[in-house]
Design goal:
Four Helix Bundle (Hemerythrin (Met), subunit A), mainly alpha, 5 helices, single chain
């Protein structure tokens, strides 16, 4: 019976994965601050459409909440593909996850401005796409190589 032996370089994708935790915490603080400013009480997830149309703070809250929610929707794929890719290509996995995480900072700042079009400011869309699809391809290649080795 054989197993997977982690190289010492696996510390890089592990560190990149941990960076996503800090991203989520930072986004949570932004959403909480926007929620207070908009006076949207729990358990309401978003401000109502009419409320957001009449109140800039409510619109900004909705945008901050959506940026965070979108990150939560993609984080399982990012973390899983980072760790799988990191088994064979640790530096690549860490770099791609880092690029994705970095892009989410600018995505969040832009989206939280209250203008959803600003979520792709400064070329962050490219970093996010390269990071995500690079990890998907890397994890697929890693799994294929493991299956072929059976």
């Amino acid at each position: 019976m054989s197993g997977i032996v982690l190289s010492k370089e696996f510390a890089y994708p592990a560190a990149a994965a941990v960076s996503t935790f800090w991203l989520l915490i930072w986004q949570t603080f932004r959403v909480s601050r926007a929620r207070r400013a908009a006076k949207v009480d729990y358990p309401q997830v978003y401000a109502e459409k009419a409320e957001a149309a009449a109140n800039q703070a409510a619109l900004k809250f909705n945008c901050a909440q959506r940026a965070h929610q979108n990150t939560l929707e993609t984080i399982p794929m990012i973390l899983t593909s980072t760790l799988i890719t990191g088994l064979k290509y640790p530096v690549l996995a860490a770099s791609l996850c880092g690029a994705w995480t970095f892009s989410r900072i600018f995505y969040t700042i832009g989206y939280s401005s209250g203008d959803p079009k600003k979520r792709y400011m400064g070329g962050n869309l490219l970093f996010g796409i390269v990071g995500m699809f690079g990890l998907l391809l890397g994890s697929t290649a890693t799994v294929v190589s493991f299956v072929r080795a059976l």
